[in-house]
Write a structure and sequence with these properties.
Elements: H1 7-14, E1 32-37, E2 43-49, H2 55-72, E3 77-83, E4 100-107, H3 115-128, E5 133-137, H4 145-148, E6 157-159, E7 163-165, E8 167-169, E9 172-176, H5 191-204, E10 210-216, H6 223-231, E11 236-241, H7 245-260, E12 265-276, E13 283-284, H8 291-299, E14 303-309, H9 311-319, H10 323-326, H11 331-345
Helix pairs in contact: 1-2, 3-11, 5-6, 7-8
Bound molecules: adenosine-5'-triphosphate (ATP) and magnesium ion.
Adenosine-5'-triphosphate binds next to helix 3, strand 12, strand 14 and helix 9.
Length: about 350
């Protein structure tokens, strides 16, 4: 006769089942929605399926059968799969900007995880692939493009009292609130002002023709993100996280916001994923491990790149030229070139 199992036993067994291709299990990742006992000693397991690939729930299902019936001795197991992701790439009524083929947002839930570093290096990497690139630094609170690109005293050139030309550096056309305020003045923005500034940057900048406009968003899910998502047809968002647990929880919220506004999630960039000791070559996982995988699995998306902690990346950012253009031979530059290739490959044909 089949053993009567407790819910704890069942959940513990499910906790041994890893999501295909990942180090984390399906309980930790929130894939198991419910484990309910039936009258006949069987169990019904409900899974949230965030993936649009059919083989994922199939693979998870056979591992669950193995764990519960074979290993634990459950009488029978019924699986239910509930798809959770809305259609990726769903088109909305939002407008495209004249002359701009693709708009890609770089976002995160938590501050300081390296969004601006990723956005700047992605921009120059796409430029190195031969695309025409603009970078919109939409971080009203902490603009960083002027410093990262070393634009010095240069300012956008205004024409006709309304429109302006972006500043061009390292092959990238740049617009940032940093060009319009001086370093000393603290900027205290209220919601409507933030929305107004982002809208103005989008509409009044004379970008010319661009293959990609990369948008560096402030952290979180506030007014700038919403304005951007409401105003323009975003081709996708790249979510940046560190491997840390707290960053992942916040990044998940950011990812879900993009889903809600029907912006396709292109994937995850795990930044600061370990430090390779320059002397001994050993990997030190300063910010923990697995955050990128966890976020990717929970949202059914991929980890597009993992950028390690490297002093050169910080130094290049502070020094006025992103690493990918300042030191193209550096291994971290190769990470961003690969990211650029993957982002470009994910764009819809136009
Ligand atoms: N992989 C890395 N290795 C070393 N330093 C890094 C790395 N990524 C980012 N940094 C440094 O960490 C700091 C924060 O990075 P960055 O400004 O890109 O983060 P952010 O997410 O844009 O922050 P904010 O939320 O303030 O906008 C910067 O000094 C940057 O040079
Ligand atoms: Mg930033």
């Amino acid at each position: 006769m089949a053993k009567k199992l407790t819910q704890e036993e069942v959940l513990a067994a499910l906790g041994q089942v890893n999501y295909p291709g990942y180090q984390s299990d399906i309980v930790t990742l929130g894939i198991v929605e419910e484990a309910a006992p039936g009258a006949d000693g069987g169990w019904t397991i409900t899974l949230r399926n965030p993936s649009d690939r059919e083989e994922i729930p199939r693979a998870i299902g056979s591992r669950i059968h193995q764990a519960l019936t074979h290993d634990l001795g459950a009488a029978k197991v019924e699986l239910r799969v509930r798809p959770v992701a809305p259609e990726l790439g769903e088109k909305t009524g939002r407008k495209r900007l004249d002359g701009i083929r693709h708009i890609v947002a770089v976002a995160s839930g938590k501050g300081g995880v390296g969004k601006s570093t990723v956005a700047a290096n992605l921009a120059v990497a796409l430029g190195r692939l031969g695309y025409k690139i603009g970078l919109l630094d939409a971080d009203i609170y902490g603009p960083s493009a002027p410093m990262m690109f070393g634009t010095g005293a240069e300012r956008p050139r205004a024409v006709d009292g309304k429109h302006f030309y972006p500043v061009e550096r390292h092959g990238v056309k740049l617009i940032s609130i940093g060009f319009f305020i001086d370093d000393e003045s603290p900027v205290i923005w209220r919601g409507p002002m933030v929305m107004g500034a982002v809208r103005q940057f989008l509409q009044d900048t004379l970008w010319g023709t661009l293959d990609f406009l990369v948008v560096d968003l402030p952290p979180g899910t506030g007014d700038a993100q919403l304005t951007l998502a409401q105003e323009v047809a975003l081709d996708g968002a790249v979510i940046v996280t560190t491997p840390q647990e707290v960053a992942v929880a916040d990044a998940l919220r950011a990812a879900r916001m993009f889903r809600q506004v029907h912006c396709p999630l292109l994937g995850v960039v795990e930044n600061m994923s370990g430090y390779v000791c320059p002397d001994c070559g050993e990997l030190d996982e300063i910010f923990g491990a697995g955050g990128g995988d966890k976020l990717a699995a929970a949202e059914g998306i991929e980890v597009l790149a993992r950028a390690p902690i490297v002093e050169a990346l910080r130094a290049a950012g502070d020094g006025g030229a992103p690493l990918t253009i300042a030191r193209p031979e550096h291994p971290a530059s190769a990470v961003f070139m690969e990211l650029a290739r993957r982002v470009a490959a994910a764009m819809p044909a136009d």
